[in-house]
């Protein structure tokens, strides 16, 4: 019985931990470990809402980080840039915010433009140009029902929007919709 205990005690002495494939995971080199530490610090900063600081770290990782975290760093860098822009924006008027929303719309940043138009309407819901902007956005993104709702509201708030919409090329996707025609030319129906 003494021999059994001795063999049990000695059984674990020479064993090496293995992975499923039977191979050891390679130990990270000093630069790889530094890149991982930087990556974790950047993630923590991003979660704390410190987007500018996180952005600087992600930019550093993209320049000289390891390939394992390169793609994720690019994605998080884009997130930081977007959130940093949203935080740093301040407008003195709804018209200024509208101009910014139109510039976003013209560059294809539809979701950011939508956020800006909706922010205008959140502060004051009877702003005709914000409804008009959302109508244009919804026309461009193929959302006919929402386009008609916002355009109808914009026209109800300011009749001149009907005349403007008749010649606005941003509504070209709506031209074949009879409801759109009826909204713009009520005297014909």
TrEMBL record:
InterPro entries: TPR-like_helical_dom_sf
Pfam families given in the database record: TPR_16
Domain of life of the native organism: Bacteria
Gene3D superfamilies referenced in this protein's UniProt entry, alphabetically: Tetratricopeptide repeat domain
NCBIfam families for this protein: TPR_END_plus
Protein name: Uncharacterized protein
